[in-house]
Amino acid sequence: MSGKGSPRWLAVVAVFLASPSLAHAYVDPGTGAMLWQVAAASALGCLFYLKRIASWVRSVPGLRSERASGFVFATAFALVTSPLAMALFEAHPVPRFNDLFLIGIVLTAYFFTWEPALYLTTVSLAVSAWILPPSGSFVVQEFSDWYRLVSFGALSIFLICLITRMKIRWAPKKSDDVSEFGMSRATAAAD
């Protein structure tokens, strides 16, 4: 048994040592990431329809201005997202629950103006303070919760400024048509 039996014993011992002990309440680490990816894909899929919704809101006779229709969009987004966030995360907020609001803030700044996006930022900060422990009050006690709120507010304001700046830069110029040589067509025709 010394020559032929020892590899079997080693294999049995190796399998015994390699097998895990009882795993109580095991959750696959990829499940959470997969759920977030499904949620992100759903949100991105909905973005294709938001342009239609934004143009429909603008077509309402009393809401022809970008600013007024932006406030309507931001209020509607807050009315849908706030109960959803409170129902999902009231007892235990996950680190990124503000992303629901951040999507709306970016969309509001992109489709409308910066004022409704800043309004939605204020609403989202109030809802976040309500959700964070102690839940059901606007009292924020922990340093980590204060950091979360301040960093979310700073990121939101940064994105609003960035999107507003990009919209200004990409807006078509309202000057005369300029040829490739830098002369306007009216000047070139006069020569």
Which key phrases capture this entry?
191 residues; 70% helix; single chain; mainly alpha
- Assembly type: single chain
Biggest beta-sheet profile: none
Number of strands: 0
Calculate the mean pLDDT score and round it: 74
Radius of gyration: 28 Å
Strand content: under 5%
**Which outline best applies?**
elongated
Total helix count?
7
Distance between the termini: 108 Å
SS-based structural class? mainly alpha
Low-confidence stretches: none
Helix content: over 70%
Helix/strand order: HHHHHHH
Please describe what this structure looks like.
The protein has a domain at 62-171. The protein contains seven helices and no strands. The protein has helices at 5-18, 29-59, 66-89, 99-111, 114-131, 143-170, 185-190. α4 (99-111) packs antiparallel against α5 (114-131). The protein is elongated. The termini are far apart.
Nutshell version of this structure?
70% of the residues lie in helices and 0% in strands. The chain is mostly helical and 191 residues long.
Produce the secondary structure layout:
Elements lengths: L4 H14 L10 H31 L6 H24 L9 H13 L2 H18 L11 H28 L14 H6 L1
Helix pairs in contact: 3-4, 3-5, 4-5, 4-6, 5-6
